[in-house]
Design brief:
- By secondary structure, the chain is mainly α.
- It is about 75% helix and about 0% strand.
- The chain is built from 1 helix and no strands.
Length: about 70
Amino acid sequence: MIDPAAAERRLTEVEAKLAFAEDLIETLNQTVFRQQEQLDLLQEQLRVLHRQLRDALPAEERNLRDEIPPHY
């Protein structure tokens, strides 16, 4: 036969563990959400930098052989 006091203790422990697990999951969800926001912002900044770099470069294609110093 199961001791009612022991069963009650076990149930209380399980409930406490569940509450901690739920709190941890919520904290992790918030962390992932913030990180995704940061990633989105960084990706947008990278796109802007890429556009700025592309716009700053001359439109003509450069040949590396044209840039070799004449003594070679």
